[in-house]
UniProtKB/TrEMBL annotation:
Sequence segments annotated as region (Disordered): 257-302
Gene source species: Pseudobutyrivibrio xylanivorans
Bias (Basic and acidic residues) ranges: 257-294
Keyword terms: Membrane, Transmembrane, Transmembrane helix
Name of the molecule in the record: Uncharacterized protein
Residue spans crossing the bilayer: 16-38, 59-79, 99-118, 130-147, 159-176, 188-210, 222-247
Length: 302
């Protein structure tokens, strides 16, 4: 297939729209899970809203981290596969290991562009960002393990060794203490449930794509996974602003209802107190009149 054949295939209707719609629906399911969790673990509206944003942006960062890494690997794979001759082939064979490092730097820049410009991760601090990117490497290792041992493809062994080295380097560095090592593991382990959600999301998308031949098997597994990540990123962008607005509105209504309920409770308490005070005053007035009547009778007897 030529380049234009691939373009026509992947943008063929209605398969393109169905695949995108599936990505959007699954993204909405992810948002729903985050909202339910945030609502169960936070009592106040502001904390609920912050927790929802925090969870969502951690998921964004995981997809960005994995997607950009897969992107430069897909580019590396496609060049290796389709560039078969000419001066560029000679240049590529001579310097492809160095070009791989350049691709990695470009992927880091793209990752920063995505989480600072496209979908700003405003609720993540540097520590949370580092831990989720570290989890992104584990996410990639699992994908490569699937390709090697289940899909039975040995074309990516170099990448697996490369990322295992990177991952170990992120865990253990020359001036790290044992406490730093444990904290690093703890922060990364906290992201594992989110990583499993991302893998399930990716798995459902790929399963559907392969089942109806929308994702072409001969196009390379890594290329198809990267292509699927592009759909996921588009789905995140499409749903982000709408879902954030809906959550903000829902939290606002909930806070309004709670405020109204508290105000009604205070008003009812005030009315009860007023009625009680009025009854006490009437009782005291009645007792005073009775005492006056007794005094009058006593004077009359005298």
């Amino acid at each position: 297939m030529t380049y234009m054949d691939y373009v026509r295939h992947y943008f063929q209707m209605p398969q393109f729209l169905i695949f995108l719609l599936l990505a959007i629906v699954l993204m909405l399911v992810v948002f729903l899970v985050f909202y339910v969790y945030a609502k169960k673990t936070n009592k106040t509206g502001s904390k609920l809203e912050h927790e929802f944003y925090y969870l969502s942006e951690r998921f964004y960062e995981l997809i960005f981290s994995g997607g950009t890494i897969i992107g430069f690997m897909a580019a590396y794979y496609l060049i290796n596969r389709f560039v078969t001759g000419g001066s560029f082939k000679v240049f590529w064979d001579s310097y492809k290991d160095y070009i791989l490092l350049v691709f990695m730097i470009i992927s880091i820049l793209i990752n920063s562009f995505l989480d600072h410009v496209v979908l700003r991760t405003e609720h993540l601090d540097d520590e949370a960002m580092a831990s989720i990117r570290l989890t992104g490497m584990l996410y990639m290792i699992i994908i490569f393990a699937y390709i090697k041992f289940i899909y039975d493809d040995n074309n990516y062994d170099m990448f697996i060794a490369y990322f295992l080295t990177l991952m170990i380097g992120r865990f253990v560095y020359f001036d790290a203490s044992f406490t730093d090592f444990l904290n690093c593991i703890k922060r990364a382990a906290a992201n594992i449930p989110m990583m499993l959600m991302a893998l399930a999301y990716l798995g459902i998308m790929c399963l559907y794509g392969y089942s109806n031949d929308y994702l072409l098997k001969h196009n390379g597994v890594i290329t198809n996974i990267f292509f699927t990540h592009l759909f996921i990123i588009v789905a995140m962008f499409v749903t982000h602003f709408v879902v954030y607005a809906v959550v903000k509105s829902a939290v606002g209504r909930e806070c309004g209802r709670r405020h109204e309920s508290r105000r009604d409770s205070r008003g009812e308490y005030g009315r009860d107190a007023g009625r009680k005070s009025s009854r006490d005053a009437n009782r005291k007035s009645h007792q005073s009149r009775e005492r006056d009547e007794v005094l009058v009778e006593d004077f009359s007897d005298i």
